[in-house]
């Protein structure tokens, strides 16, 4: 792991297109990305930019951070700081106020061309696990951590992780995330523990592999280990 240190900066609205680009580059070639979210194009890019903008401007729990190297956006992190232990009840209320769970509404929740059934299976597990495991308590969520491929291996992701974990330690709260196989070893080094995993069988959607995502928890500083 690189020992490089970087200045952590806030994300601006002008960064959102670059974030969408980095996501596409970071997940390029992964079967799960291609099958579930379809190939990136101008429509999917605009969809993602608008979703990021909504999080940046309308969600008070969201905290974006970035590292810039040589004038280029090298990596970003999206955190959600839940200091209200009833955060999950507020989310349920928003869903109820959203009206009927129609197919048209479901389609609008995912990028154009996405496999809606696969998205529902994956995100159903993801949001369900967050509610089941973290509902009723304060916590910090790592929703997204990506590094531009050309800057991988230079400590960018670690710097962004340390920045967010310092916030969790300030409030003495646990941190939750869902890890891909690529990110899993890094999170283990930072003290995250396996809680549960989800295997998405891509053969059901025309693929040939099983994509595993691991729900991981980093206990609060004041938590006592059960080991």
UniProtKB/TrEMBL annotation:
Region listing for Disordered, in residue ranges: 92-112
Composition bias, Basic and acidic residues: 92-107
Keywords of the record: Transferase
Domain N-acetyltransferase stretches: 6-221
One MF term in the entry's GO annotations: acyltransferase activity, transferring groups other than amino-acyl groups
Keyword Transferase recorded: yes
UniProt xrefs under PANTHER family: GNAT FAMILY ACETYLTRANSFERASE (PTHR42791), N-ACETYLTRANSFERASE DOMAIN-CONTAINING PROTEIN (PTHR42791:SF14)
Domain of life according to the entry: Eukaryota
Protein name, per record: GNAT family acetyltransferase, putative
């Amino acid at each position: 792991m690189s020992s490089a240190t970087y200045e952590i900066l806030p994300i601006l609205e002008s960064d959102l297109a670059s974030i969408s680009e980095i996501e596409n580059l970071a997940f390029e070639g992964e079967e799960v990305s291609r099958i579930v979210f379809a190939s990136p194009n101008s429509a999917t890019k605009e969809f993602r930019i608008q979703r990021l903008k909504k999080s940046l401007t309308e969600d008070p729990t969201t905290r974006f951070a970035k590292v810039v190297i040589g004038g280029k956006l090298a990596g970003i992190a999206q955190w959600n700081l839940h200091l209200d232990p009833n955060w999950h009840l507020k989310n349920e209320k928003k869903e109820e106020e959203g009206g009927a769970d129609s197919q048209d509404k479901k389609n609008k929740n995912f990028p154009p061309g996405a496999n809606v059934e696969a998205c529902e299976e994956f995100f159903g597990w993801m949001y369900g696990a967050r509610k089941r495991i973290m509902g009723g308590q304060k916590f910090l969520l790592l929703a997204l951590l990506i590094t531009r491929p050309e800057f991988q291996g230079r400590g960018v992701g670690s710097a962004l992780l340390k920045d967010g974990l310092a916030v969790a330690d300030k409030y003495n709260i646990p941190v939750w995330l869902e890890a891909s196989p690529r990110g899993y070893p890094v999170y283990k080094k930072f003290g995250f523990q396996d809680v549960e995993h989800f295997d998405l069988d891509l053969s059901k959607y025309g693929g040939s592999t099983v994509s595993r995502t691991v729900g991981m928890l980093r206990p609060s500083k004041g938590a006592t280990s059960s080991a």
